[in-house]
Each structure stands twice: as structure tokens, then as C-alpha cells.
Amino acid sequence: MKKKYILITLILLLAIYFLFPYLNEISQDKIPYPTITIGDTNISKDIEINSYASPIFFEGNEKAVLIIHGYLASPQEVQELAYYLNENGYTVFAPLMSGHGSDYKNLENVSWEDWKEESEYYYELLEDNYEEVHVVGFSLGSLSALELSMNYELDSLTVIGSPIFIFKEEINDLDFYVEEISEYIPYLKKSNVITDIVIGRQTYSFIPTSSILEVMKYSEEVQDNLENVDDNIFIIHGNFDTTSDPYSAEYIYENVASEEKEIYSVNSLHTVLMGIHDQKVFEEILEFIQA
To answer: Which domains does the chain have, with CATH numbers?
Structure first.
């Protein structure tokens, strides 16, 4: 009888573990997409987003910083950096990228070209209204930041946790998975889950498998064209990153054409902007931008 109750308890715990991402996903409070005004341009979308996922715009001086967030997440994961840079005088804009901050199914129809084009739009908007524009990209956002450097003359470029090389143990034969098994897979966060809980980072709990393919395509596109990056670049990566291979930082350093380039390694997982080393990372980014 005792073994029976233990077995039932284990089954219930497993059910809660696997259902928790789904329950968390559907419980989010929704708000209308807020209007952001930059210069004479109003940025608005006719959608509802999760209450935590609002785009960030802090007015400061005539030097602007565009911060592009990562995959499955929102500007929430870069907000502390945004506050820090704004407190040091900078105007900061961290947009909500397409497919994010609302419902994981919205990622289904977003391509890597969409992320590329909207990053260019936001950069040009800042360039038209401010004397300087510095770009910071985290994770997926770092691919857009690198792409911007290939096509524009940035005042500085900072890339963090770049997924040039992605740990792929769980996404082998992904094309087959998309076509034959499932359109969505649960994102259980694994080794990052404790960090996410502690720091309050919220991400989607399911991933459209087709969207992972878009991230991989974007990564390959950027990787193939790194020689066209020639702006001053600051490359940051967590030594214990289990999402983007830390070798990505070294690869970027070796293949960009930038005359001034620097790698900064952090004893952290992927979320270097939201861990115990965050203030030191913020200081390093500020020092690089000011230089």
C-alpha cells in the first residue's frame, strides 16, 4: 500500500512538472501594446502583449543605445541594463521583437528576415533622431546587432551570448521532428531554470519547432558574413553558457574585421545580464560605449 501511494505521488509530481509550463503560459495578464514615441514617429501595434513584456524607452541625452533582447523572452531581460545606461545619461530603446511577449504561437510565422528588418527600422529611427547610436544585442538579439554592423556604421557594438554555435544535442533531426512529431516542444529551461526563478526572467514555455529553424538560419547567415563587421566590438559570453556555445565569442573575435575588439568572459550561465555579476557587466558595457 505504501508503494502505491509513493507511485501515485511521483506520477502527480511528474504531471505538475510537465504541465507547469503550459499553466504558466496561459495565466499571463494581457495589456494593449503601449505606444512609444521617438521623434515624430509613434511605434504602436494592434496586439495584446504579456504585462511584463512592454518595450522600453527612456529619454536621456543625444546619445542613444538600442538594446535587442533574446529568443523567447522580452525587454524584461535587458531592463536593468537599460536603467543603468539611462541613469548614466543615455537614451535607451529596447523594443519588443516580433513574435515575442505575447503567445508562443505568434513565433510560428516570424522569419529571421523579419527580425533583421525590424532591427534595421529601429536603428534607422534612432539614427535619424540622435547624434550617436550604440547597439547592444543579447542572444538572438546579438545576431541582429551583428547584422546591423554589416550594413551601418555603428558608434559601438556589444554582443552578449551570441548563438553563433548553438548546443544542438536536443534538436538533431529537427526537420523530421517538425514534420512528423510535433509543431511545438516544451521549453523546460533545464540548467537555467533556477536562475530564471531567482531573477524573475519570464520566457515562453513552449517553442514552435519551425521557429528554432529560423534562429539556426539566422545564425548561419551571420556566421557566413562576419568579415563584414568592422565596428568597434565588445564580445561578452558566460563561461558556463548551456544555450550558446562559449566558443562563439572566440569565433566572432577571430572573424570580424573590427580593428578594436575585446572579449569579456563571465563566470555565468547564458543570462549574464541578470545574474550575480550583472553590475560588473553593466560597468564594462558602459565603459566600452563611453570609449
So the answer is: 2-290 (3.40.50.1820)
